[in-house]
């Protein structure tokens, strides 16, 4: 199902207004970017491009959509007739999914008929903001888990079915190994995993009987939930009994899950009991309202954990639940000529970057796998050996700097035109791997959970000058 009506009413009001007042084929460019990183991080793991592109490609209005819009009695009949016969005519430049992106950098740049590009705003932001938020949170959590598998368990706590399903995809892009959400697993070809709930244990006369019944059905995959009654005095001893029975029958047990109490203390005791009983390879999974900071604290305390199951705080990014990516006009065509556009604000942070742009990631010449800064440039600028630039950080001084000794790689590329489509990566784990590689290129200090260093982003002098020129023109100064 496509979502062409999932847009704010004012987009339709503007599109109808453009239709009445401007040439119908007037072209515009809008950029998607964000200003602040959730959880005071230093970058966002971009995600959602696959869905956004799918929506843009299939963008059109059905007869039923048009009938509904007509029923609102707010739009002209000729606009609705036009809309009924319009299909996607946009061109999309994008940074590949999984790339860590910084404030101010265009993640997507969409150009095409003003009416259409305007109507796409809400839907494109909805998809990119949501998936990038969850991918970023998943990156923070999996980074804290330091190589241990993190299973995404959040479907029951997500804000609705789409947030659960696309959130699970984003969680895997950010680093999770699997999901408990069977629909997401089917749609995105990722592993569907799980253990058992307390209801299973409660459904039998006692815990041991419940464990035995489970082990009989799933002898090679049984991960037993040990905290229904008492982890140390009942759950782990009963699990060990069943593990011994499994081993006697030729099966190697998988492990246990702890879902309440002081996880460090319980995991340490459980580990010792399992080891002493001859099960050093039995894995311990922790769950219960975990987040990156708790995972980090558990591991720093020496909790002997092998895996994590993480739901609500991952799927809702509850510690920082909004990525406020925006969609801003950067160019408008006038009599066949593109003109840069700007939104001015008293807050420097909110002044937009005009023109058609490119983002370059700069790698050290002598260490080509180390990225040290990004530069936002005008699209047609030639990037030579030296770049004259100013800091894009609105709080930094705007003194000119010379960047040298780099290899510059462009991040944005054209992936869709009205008559051509370039293949983008759609395999979820391939995107995860790409994200992992791209994050590995960033300086270590930008990846701290607490107070990470800001990754430097610059504007070329040409772009900064264009921005300043437009500010002066519009403010008459
Ligand atoms: N050792 C630990 N260090 C830091 N946080 C922990 C530790 N153990 C558990 N937590 C976290 O503390 C939070 C609350 O755990 P708490 O033990 O208070 O409640 P609970 O176990 O859910 O309670 P109940 O036993 O009633 O189910 C959870 O987010 C959990 O992940
Ligand atoms: O805590 P999360 O990170 O969201 O992980 C998923 C939680 O979902 C299940 O709990 P359930 O819905 O049964 O609630 P409860 O165990 O907290 O009572 C499971 O036992 C985890 O605790
Ligand atoms: O499989 C599990 O253990 C699971 C799945 C969803 C939520 N909580 C736990």
UniProtKB/TrEMBL annotation:
Pfam families: NAPRTase, NAPRTase_C, NAPRTase_N
Catalysed transformations (reactions): 5-phospho-alpha-D-ribose 1-diphosphate + nicotinate + ATP + H2O = nicotinate beta-D-ribonucleotide + ADP + phosphate + diphosphate
Nicotinate phosphoribosyltransferase C-terminal domain segment(s): 356-466
SUPFAM superfamilies given in the database record: Nicotinate/Quinolinate PRTase C-terminal domain-like, Nicotinate/Quinolinate PRTase N-terminal domain-like
Keyword annotations from UniProtKB, A to Z: Glycosyltransferase, Ligase, Phosphoprotein, Pyridine nucleotide biosynthesis, Transferase
Keyword Transport in annotation: no
Enzyme Commission number(s): 6.3.4.21
Residue ranges of every copy of the Nicotinate/nicotinamide phosphoribosyltransferase domain listed in the record: 150-349
Pathway noted in the entry: Cofactor biosynthesis; NAD(+) biosynthesis; nicotinate D-ribonucleotide from nicotinate: step 1/1
Nicotinate phosphoribosyltransferase N-terminal domain: residues covered: 5-129
Protein name per Swiss-Prot or TrEMBL: Nicotinate phosphoribosyltransferase
The species this protein was found in: Lactobacillus ultunensis DSM 16047
Encoding gene, per UniProt annotation: pncB
